[in-house]
Amino acid sequence: MALTSYFTMMEVFSQYLPSYNPIIGGLTGSPRPPLHPPWEVFGSDKLTFVLLGYDEVDKWAHRSDTLMIGAVDFYAATVKVVALPRDTLVHIPRRGFQKVNSAYAYGGENLVRQTMENFFGVPVDYVISVNYDGFREVVDALGGVDIYVERAMHYDDRRGNTHIHIEQGWNHFDGAEALNYARFRHDAKGDIGRIERQQNLMMELFQQRIKPGNIHNFKPAIDAFLKNITITVNEDSPRRVPEIGFEELMSLAGFLSIIDKDDIAFYQIPTDDLYWNGLSCLVPLYNRTSEMLEEVFRNDAPIAWEMEDPGVAVISEETDVPVIDMTEDIQ
């Protein structure tokens, strides 16, 4: 990424939004200060985040539908995002070994962050929590998204008031339709297929909407983001700002708008099925996961299984098939 292109984009932002005051959230007669590049705004050349998407079917027991950990490197101009399937068996602090999607119900964003940090061995700066309403409003503010659907998707759940009917071929999705596409998992791939669709949707939003030519959508999208989506700051992280507001997100949007498609990469933790202790779940495949995380986090993040207490997942190096050591107390 050429720095001259970035600063040109910042000049455009400043001209387009000459009177926006992020503190009071409205228009004023005073010009806003020029936007700064993200490595200055965030005080670091990189940041890490957890993207948490949760359902609201039961208001007393939210569980995470989507869990991804991302690394943004401003110096290398890259974004890398790794998805962890929601049925993956992990160690949740103070709760023992359970499916990872239980962490949010037990302890909200902070417990999700701790669980993800322990699993990946990576410090997390921010947790971005997205509910259904927030997702819909942000996609609508960006003007929707065009997606090619490989197979027709049909599902009805009257109890949950969920009705998904999407035809094969090119579709233009508004926020509600994009949410249905991202939630659907009633095919042969189940949750793995849903992760693939979610990552495809994120890539298309980057490609189609977060681009210099769509600058007119940035302000309403960021307003919708700040209104509907929660960003939890890790107070223990040395590379974080105490609060994410309009200027931080606008600077980040400027960075994302000029990244090439090849500089954005999505991954998914490889897993195998396991029936353990009456629980149908997934366990990671050590060899392939280790190689993947080395690529994403540049060898500076030892994964959980390399620590002294490997816990539940004992991986066969010869077959790459997970084996449970039943002599361990993993309740």
Helix content: 25-40%
| Shape, per Cα inertia axes | globular
Mean pLDDT: 77
Q: Based on the coordinates given, report the CATH architecture of the domain at 38-131 and 229-324.
A: 2-Layer Sandwich
Individual helix count: 9
Question: What structural class do the secondary elements suggest?
Answer: alpha+beta
The Cα radius of gyration reads 21 Å
Task: Give the class-level CATH name of the domain at 38-131 and 229-324.
Answer: Alpha Beta
Sheet of most strands? 6 strands, mixed
Q: Biggest sheet: strands side by side, in what order?
A: 13-8-3-4-5-14
Low-confidence stretches: 15-34, 300-331
Number of strands: 18
Query: What is the element string, with H for helices and E for strands?
Result: HEEHEEEEEHEHEEEEHHHEHEEEHEE
Briefly note the CATH topology name of the domain at 38-131 and 229-324: Nucleotidyltransferase, domain 5
| Estimated share of beta-strand residues | 25-35%
Q: In whole angstroms, how far apart are the ends? A: 49 Å
Q: Please, could you describe this protein's structure?
A:
It is a single chain. With 331 residues, this protein is an alpha+beta fold. It has a domain at 38-131 and 229-324: 2-Layer Sandwich (Nucleotidyltransferase, domain 5). 33% of the residues lie in helices and 27% in strands. It is built from nine helices and 18 strands. It has helices at 3-16, 38-41, 103-120, 132-141, 175-183, 190-208, 218-228, 246-257, 286-297; strands at residues 20-21, 26-27, 46-54, 64-73, 78-83, 89-92, 96-99, 126-130, 145-149, 153-157, 162-166, 169-173, 230-233, 264-268, 271-276, 279-284, 313-315, 322-324. A six-stranded mixed sheet has the order 13-8-3-4-5-14, sandwiched between helices. Strand 10 (153-157) and strand 11 (162-166) form a beta hairpin. Helix 1 (3-16) crosses helix 8 (246-257). Residues 15-34 and 300-331 have low confidence and may be disordered.
